[in-house]
Amino acid sequence: MKLYFSSGSCGLATQIALREARQKFELVAVDFKSKTTIEGDYYKVSPKGFIPALKLDDGDTITEGVVILQWIADNNPHSELLPAFGTRARYTALEWLNFIATDLHKSFAVLFSPFVDQASKTKFAEGNLTSKFEYLETHLASNNYLMGSTFSAADGYLYNVMCWPGRVGVDISKYGAIREFMARMEKRPTVIASLKAEGLEIVKCMDGVRN
């Protein structure tokens, strides 16, 4: 398999999941500006031009991070990345994945946009992200992971997104439970390996999270 990614972007969650599932894969870096890789035109891999994209061994390609995470979980049930089909816990996990994708990830996309001025970004963060952080803080204050005491694919995605506040000038140092969650995640061998593979350092990923 090949995972198409860009360092520090949203492909980190997929890489963590693949490592948790003990899958062999090749990392292919995508240049955001030119939409190219060492293989050439990235649009030939993913017509949408977004990452991540996972090219399977049979040549088929899956896009959309949340869908890729579900595919990895469903094809590697031994990894227990998601609860079993049909269980209430399964839908709880999907709730978390969708919350991260639609409420957190997309909100951060606004803060990364070059088309929005800094004053507007600050106002947007205060009005749209604060309540989400408070929701997470309350939940994580009594749970080690999103699903309670058990790691899931949703945790890798949350970790991925919560590495971004420092990059966009959002201070979340007051959220102790979130900080503890991030520190807990960074003890997992799969997270350490994934950060190293992308050329990232834990201390940089935690900027804006630590005091």
Layout: helices, strands, pairs:
Elements: E1 2-5, H1 12-20, E2 26-29, E3 36-37, E4 40-41, E5 53-55, E6 61-63, H2 65-75, H3 88-112, H4 118-128, H5 130-140, H6 153-161, H7 176-185, H8 189-197, H9 202-205
Parallel strand pairs: 1-2
Antiparallel strand pairs: 1-5, 3-4, 5-6
Summarize the structure.
The chain is an alpha+beta fold and 211 residues long. The chain folds into 2 domains: 78 residues, Glutaredoxin (3-Layer(aba) Sandwich), CATH 3.40.30.10; 118 residues, Glutathione S-transferase Yfyf (Class Pi), Chain A, domain 2.
Could you please describe the fold and organization of this structure?
- This protein is α+β, with helices and mostly antiparallel strands.
- It has 2 domains: 2-79, Glutaredoxin (3-Layer(aba) Sandwich), CATH 3.40.30.10; 88-205, Glutathione S-transferase Yfyf (Class Pi), Chain A, domain 2.
- The protein is 47% helix and 9% strand.
- The chain contains 9 helices and 6 strands, in the order E-H-E-E-E-E-E-H-H-H-H-H-H-H-H.
- The chain has helices at residues 12-20, 65-75, 88-112, 118-128, 130-140, 153-161, 176-185, 189-197, 202-205, and strands at 2-5, 26-29, 36-37, 40-41, 53-55, 61-63.
- Strand 1, helix 1 and strand 2 (26-29) form a beta-alpha-beta unit.
- The radius of gyration is 17 Å and the shape is globular.
- The termini are far apart.
- The mean pLDDT is 94.
